[in-house]
Amino acid sequence: MTDEVKHNKRDIGTIAASVGVAEDAAHHGIAPPLWTADTSEWASPTDKPDYDYSRTVNPNRTLLVRALAALEGAQGGVVTNSGQSAALLALLLLKQGARVVAPHDCYGGTYRLLQGMEERGVLRAVFVDQGDSAALAAALADGADMLWLESPSNPLLRIVDIAACAKAGKQAGALVLADNTLPTPCRQKPLALGCDIVLHSTTKAINGHNDLFGGALLAGDPSIVERIEWWANAAGLSGSAHDAWQILRGLRTLPLRVDRQEKTARAVAAWLADHEQVLEVHYPGLSSHPDYELAARQQSGPGFMLSFRIKGGEAGTRKFVQALELVTLASSLGGFATLICTPASMTHRGMPPEAQAEAGILPDLLRVSIGLEGAEDLIADFERGFAAT
Ligand SMILES: *Cc1c(COP(=O)(O)O)cnc(C)c1O
């Protein structure tokens, strides 16, 4: 039985806790060992071993792909050495001059990669507000080879209707990709919503321990999986054995961490929404969120990311973050430690100011990735921040 069939109806916690367990034929270890060998012995010149060369295949990467594919309902895919190399891998599937329709408020690194590829004449990047279905339809009507989706968006936690976008993208003949890093497969399953490809930065919640970087690209169609594997090998984008081993270790507790981080995020978001020094809070779990109902339908929970604007402008955000004692000023997200950042000057600084303004990334915006600390302690720390502004 394939993992996909076996895990179809299983609880997400069961999948995370069981893939690769007690499969070590050599010593019967419960946890999978780390296989670092770059190459394996051939029995004869025509008997290729399963794991002939580690850029192409490695047992630790295979296990991690099995776990991620089972979680996403994918047929397979590739574990890459970063989220960005997974993005590059997705773009390598396209022909020269392909049109890629991406969100105007996509991840900063995605924006930079698409812009850079466009400047080299490799592809044409079209950034559009995908929450505006007429604007999306107009962008697709000009022809699209790939529709890039990211919901909830970062840092504004905007939600797009993935099933409707995927349908429109498919009708236009595009390959539809969803960056599922923020919600994780614990909260959203893009393949079930009609997407062809799922992208992850495993640097974030999937590893969850702020101690490595990695990525993954998964697909539901075996022929796409094959193309992904071919290009990952051809371009040398695969992740290391050690990272794959460690990411699977982190993944064991992903469902547990997401539950706890989300519960805390709900409490912090509700507290911020009532705070007199807050201008607005972006969190899909608040009924004030413009897409609250869509989020409730499309995701199995609002997740652990939120952003908010405070009174006092950019200078206020500086004083706020410098007064914090528990929460750390840093980019990245999804780990055990709560991190705060000012997207305009940090995560999204690669975007020109006009593009930032267009996407609504204002200088007084703060983005928070809630970790595993107690809600009361985080709230007390933010109160320290407000007191300093
Ligand atoms: C971090 C991130 C990426 C890029 O991943 P890296 O591992 O940093 O290369 C892509 N998309 C989203 C949504 C991210 O948060």
Automatic annotation (TrEMBL):
It comes from the Bacteria. GO terms for molecular function: transferase activity. Keywords: Pyridoxal phosphate, Transferase. Pfam families: Cys_Met_Meta_PP (PF01053). CDD domains: CGS_like. Its cofactor is pyridoxal 5'-phosphate. Transmembrane segments: none annotated. This is PLP-dependent transferase. It comes from Sphingosinicella rhizophila.
